[in-house]
Amino acid sequence: MVEFALSEEQEMLRELAHEFARDTVRPNAEHWDANSQFPTEAIAEAHALGLTNLHIPAEYGAWVWEYLTKC
Fold first, then answer.
1. Overall average pLDDT of the 21-26 stretch
2. How many domains are contained in the chain?
3. What is the full DSSP assignment across 1-70?
4. Mean pLDDT throughout 8-33?
5. Phi-psi group of 36: left, alpha or beta (phi > 0 → left; psi -120 to 50 → alpha; rest → beta)
6. Distance between CA atoms of 32 and 14, rounded to whole angstroms?
7. Inside any domain, residue 65
8. What is the C-alpha separation between 39 and 67, in angstroms, rounded?
């Protein structure tokens, strides 16, 4: 049977993504949209946190996550 409960690592990643969205994206999204700005600094921060490369294979330096985590 497939286990759909989050592992401890998955829960930590979910919390990291939630905090990033709450603290960085949500307060600035309206401004970025209204001014047609691409959030370069926010994307760089997401990358530094490891949130933009979940799909990259481990042999290229990415974290190792099972398929469900990458969804």
1. 98
2. 1
3. ----SPPHHHHHHHHHHHHHIIIIIHHHHHHHHHTT---HHHHHHHHHTT-S-TTS-GGGT-----HHHH
4. 95
5. left
6. 24
7. yes
8. 28
Report angle CA 57, 59, 62 to the nearest 5 degrees.
55
Residue 50 lies in a domain: yes
Q: What is the pLDDT of residues 26-59, one digit of tens each?
A: 999 999 999 999 999 999 999 999 888 776 776 7
Residue 66 is part of which domain span? 9-70
23 in a domain, yes or no? yes
Residue 19 domain-assigned (yes or no): yes
Question: Which pTM was predicted?
Answer: 0.76
Which of the four pLDDT bands, split at 50, 70 and 90, describes residue 18?
A: very high
